[in-house]
Amino acid sequence: MGDNWGFVLAAYALAAIVLTGYWRHLVRRERELNAPVAGHPPGAPPRQQ
Amino acid sequence: MIFARRAWSVVWKDLLVERRSKETLNALAFFSLLLLFVFQFALGPDRERLAAALPGLLWLGFVLAGLLGLGRTFVLERENDCWEGLILAPGDKSAIYVGKLAANVTLMLVVEGLILLLFAVFFNVDLAPALTGLALVMILGTVGLAAVGTLFAAMTAQVRARELLFPVLLLPVQVPVLLGTVKATEAVLLGEPLGAVGHWLGLLAAADVIYIVTGLLTFDFLLES
Amino acid sequence: MTRVLGWLAALALLAGLGMAFAVAPREATQGTVQRIMYVHVPSVWVAYCAFVVVFVASIAYLATRAEAADRLAHASAEVGVLFTGLTIATGSIWGKPTWGTWWTWDARLTSVAVLFVMYVGYLLLRGMIDEGERAARYAAVLGVVAALNIPLVHFSVLWWRTLHQPPSLMKPGPSSMPPVIVRALLVNFAAFALLYLYFVAKRVRLLRLEGEAGA
Q1: What domain count does chain C have?
Q2: DSSP state letters, B107-130
Q3: For residues B190 and C132, is the Cβ–Cβ distance under 8 A?
Q4: Considering the entire predicted model, what is its pTM?
């Protein structure tokens, strides 16, 4: 029986993409909310907690 | 005793309004007739195919009619600005839940009886020998459907896009009831004894009890503020 | 604190990968494809745990009206849906080479799919209500109903699939698993559980920030 590495790789890659995608979504959202209010240029470094 | 009287007054009010206006009932009766047309068009005249699909179609009809009917549970209160009246009703709100549930079950059983009759006439199926078993399955299934439906109708009554949200919430939760009723109906229509589907009837009964108890315990929280 | 949890989760995931690819042997009947199990099974376990957390937090909210409980329920439901989706996707990828099809209405696949739509509905309901307090109350009721429904879904789907037509297809996973595989599974489960905790902690903090920004 063939080893079907492609499927294994696809499953792990998908898991990696989904999980890091969600993680990045959380991080980005948190940075937005933590960013100092109006007037600050976008892309400013996040305020350190 | 007071609880029963309060619940009864909700049932009496809802059924009286429905009897006078026949708003929901008329529309649902017509809707069931249309459903029959659609099923016929979808399946074609082949009688054997129809017989195989009958239990599923029957419950599809019940559920679609139920979605429309149950979604209107609190429509009177909302449109006539009586929602505050429900909220302000003194004491235990679960009596309102019981009343609404009983009214819904009654209305749905009437509509389901009608759909059954239409199926028997238009599709020429002999339902008479299976009628007692069928009635049992229908009651068990309808109570489960209405128990969650009444709760969710209260939940979505004051929410945006409620016509959309109500079926979206209700259908997945109803999967056990749907599977149980369709399987049990299938067996009953094949002339099998009820004992052969005892496990399904048990599951339906368990679902009914769980849903009603949850509804009683949580309905209060939906009618707050 | 959250950061430490994140690093722990990352390390555990690396260890899990090591267990899945280096330590666990190539399974005899299915070959390498079976290694998908080490993402598939832990993520469904974590998803079930997440929905239990939603259940408990919902009851806690209804009893105490603590906003923290509501935030926990919300975060846990979202992360649970994420892991349920991952379970379905990896299961589908696993199914293609073993069963020859992306999807069968297998009992376990079906009940996970029902779970998925149920909790997507939960998140939809939350999204549709603007006032926070009412959203929390309604969602808590739904969280309780959905969780109580899980055993009903499980049994009905199981009977639906198995009573009339016994499963002729190969079941995923060997019937009795050798201890190496069990160990690899447990390491991966621990890693996914840490990741779940990290995500929930982050999401809860985010919800608090969102609440403060909205207020």
Answers
A1: 1
A2: HHHHHHHHHHHHHHHHTT---GGG
A3: no
A4: 0.88
- A23 belongs to a structural domain: yes
Assess contact for B179 and C161: CB atoms under 8 A. Answer: no
Mean pLDDT of the region A11-26: 94
Instruction: Report d(CA C36, CA A15) in Å as an integer.
Output: 10
Q: Which residue has the tokens 């047309």?
A: B37
CB contact under 8 A, B221 and C133: no
Nearest Cβ partner of B165 from C124, C137, C148?
C124
List CB contacts of B21: < 8 A, sequence separation 6 or more.
none
Q: What confidence score (pLDDT) does residue C164 get?
A: 45
Print the domain residue range for A13.
1-33
Which structure tokens are listed for B140?
A: 């068990």
> Smallest CA–CA separation between C41 and chain A, in Å?
12
Judged by 3 or more CB pairs under 8 A, whether B touches A is no
Pairs from C64-68 (Cβ < 8 Å, separation ≥ 24): C67/C132, C67/C136, C67/C211, C68/C204
| Cβ contacts of B183 on chain C, cutoff 8 Å | 159-160
Alpha-carbon distance B156 to B213, whole Å? 20
ipTM computed for the complex: 0.89
Residue C170 has pLDDT above 50, yes or no: no
What's the domain range around C24?
Answer: 2-214
Helix, strand, or coil (residue A45): coil
Number of structural domains in chain A: 1
Mutate to test the interface with C, among B173, B182, B210 (most CBs of C within 10 A): B173
Residue A18 lies inside a defined structural domain of this protein: yes
Domain contains A10: yes
Among C34, C39, C207, the residue to mutate for chain A (most A Cβ within 10 A)? C39
Query: Which two structure tokens, joined as six digits, stand for B66?
Result: 């139920």
Split at pLDDT 50, 70, 90, the class of C167 is very low
φ/ψ region of B97 (left if φ > 0, alpha if ψ in -120 to 50, else beta) reads alpha
C93:A19 CB<8 A? no
* A22 within a domain of the structure (yes/no): yes
β-bridge mates for residue C31, sequence order: C27
Judged by CB atoms closer than 8 Å, whether chains meet at A11 and C30 is answered as: no
8 A C-beta contact, residue C97 and residue A7: yes
Beta bridge partners of residue C27, listed in sequence order: C31
pLDDT mean across residues, chain C: 87
Q: Give B20 to chain C, closest Cα distance, Å.
A: 33
Neighbouring residues of B118: CB distance < 8 A, sequence distance ≥ 6: B32, B33, B36
Residue C170: phi and psi, rounded to 5, are -65, 130
- Lowest average pLDDT, out of A33-37, B29-33, B63-67, C171-175, goes to C171-175
Task: Kindly list the residues from chain C whose CB atom is less than 8 angstroms away from the CB atom of residue A20.
Answer: none
Tell me the three state secondary structure of residue C163: coil
The pair of structure tokens assigned to C194 is 């840490």
